[in-house]
Amino acid sequence: MKKVSLIIATIIIVGLLIFGYIWYYVPYSDSGVKAGILNNVKHKGIIFKTYEGELIQSGFRPGQQGLQSNEFQFSIDDKDLAIKLMSLSGQNVKLHYKEFYGVLPWRGYTKFIVDSIVAFEPVIPSQQQEIPPQAGE
């Protein structure tokens, strides 16, 4: 009876280890590319210092009025890539990322991990001048 219990316990432990490995280390999706204006990249954390970034995706959405914008939050594993992205703040970028099922504190705060820059180009400011509001109207 002890031998059967030991075999069942071993199978359960091995199953949990395999599940944990897949949940935290095997990418759910590894062919994602997001495009938008890079808002910021920060180095933050209390115990585990990680690089975190935000990408603003804007555009017209069918069936909705006006311009919509979404914020894509991501983490960065590679220090050199994070430093390069810090210098591209405010520019249009296309970022390749991997999506994981779970979040590990030493990998970042999000399940989206950016691993490369696909393309970037500077934002061209519009030529329209803004009219300031009239006082007293």
Helices and strands, with pairings:
Blueprint: H1 2-25, E1 29-44, E2 50-60, E3 67-76, H2 79-86, E4 92-99, E5 112-121
Parallel strand pairs: 3-5
Antiparallel strand pairs: 1-2, 1-4, 2-3, 4-5
Question: What would your notes on this structure say?
Answer:
The chain is an alpha+beta fold and 137 residues long. The chain has a domain at 28-121: OB fold (Dihydrolipoamide Acetyltransferase, E2P) (Beta Barrel). The protein has 2 helices and 5 strands. It has helices at residues 2-25, 79-86; strands spanning 29-44, 50-60, 67-76, 92-99, 112-121. It has a 5-stranded mixed β-barrel with strand order 1-2-3-5-4. Strand 1 (29-44) and strand 2 form a beta hairpin. The longest helix has 24 residues, at 2-25. It starts with a helix and ends in a 16-residue tail after the last strand. The model has no long low-confidence stretch (mean pLDDT 86).
